[in-house]
Amino acid sequence: NAGVMQNPRHLVRRRGQEARLRCSPMKGHSHVYWYRQLPEEGLKFMVYLQKENIIDESGMPKERFSAEFPKEGPSILRIQQVVRGDSAAYFCASSPYGLSNSNQPQHFGDGTRLSIL
Amino acid sequence: GNSVTQMEGPVTLSEEAFLTINCTYTATGYPSLFWYVQYPGEGLQLLLKATKADDKGSNKGFEATYRKETTSFHLEKGSVQVSDSAVYFCALIQSGGSYIPTFGRGTSLIVHP
Q: How confident is the model at residue B41, as a pLDDT?
C-alpha cells in the first residue's frame, strides 16, 4: 500500500524559472493538502484541494503560486517566476475524507526540497 | 488565532535518559492535539493524539496528556533511544473551525549512544 508520493524529492531552479511539484495521494484518498516548511520553522498550511476543486487556499500567496488536483493524475503545486525566498521544503498530505472530523490525522509525503539559485 | 508554542531545541540527551518536550497552545474551544515526528529527509508521521481534556495519547513509549487547565500537551518518554533522534512537532486542530492543523515550530531531539 503505497503512501503519499511526492516528486521530485529535490528540485533546483534559477530565479525567474517555474517550479512544478507533484503529489500523488494515498490510494483511496481524495483530499490533498500542501504545506511549506522553511528552515527552523514549522509547517505552514498553503492549500486544501479535493478532486477538481480548491476548498481552502487561505495560506497560498496571492501571486505566482497556484495548485490543482485534476480528475486524473497527481496534484500539482506550481510556482512561477521563483525567487530565493521560495526555497523551502514543500509537503503534501492526504486524507480519505475532508477535515470535518478534528480527530482525523493526515498522511504526509516525504516532501520536495526546492532550492533557488 | 490559534497558535502552538514548543520549547526550542535542539534537545540533546544520552541513551536511556528521560525526555520531556514542552508544548503549550492557544485556541478557542476544545481543539484536538497531536504530536508528529519527522525523521531526517522524510515527511511527518503521526505519533500520538488526544481529543479531549485529560486524555492521554501514547505510542512507541511516548506519552502526552491533554491538560486544559494549563493549555499544555507535553511529550514524554521514559527512556530514549538513538533511533528516537528526529524533529517533533506539536499540532492542534480546532473543532468547529476550518479544521486545518496549526503546527508548532518543531523541536529537534538528538540522542547520543
A: 84
User: pLDDT digits over A38-95, tens only?
Assistant: 877 778 999 999 988 999 999 999 999 999 999 999 999 999 999 999 999 999 999 8
Unique residue bearing C-alpha cell 533557488: A116
With contacts defined as CB-CB under 8 Å, which chain B residues touch A60? none
Contact B93 A48 (CB under 8 A): no
In chain A, whose CA is at the least distance from the CA of B4?
A: A42
What radius of gyration, in Å, describes the C-alpha atoms of chain B? Answer: 14
Contact A108/B4, CB-based, under 8 Å?
A: no
Cβ atoms of residues A37 and A43 within 8 Å: yes
pLDDT band at B100 (very low <50, low <70, confident <90, very high): confident
Contact B46 A105 (CB under 8 A): yes
Cα separation of the two ends of chain B:
41
Interface contact A90, partner B, CB < 8 A? no
Average per-residue pLDDT for chain B: 92
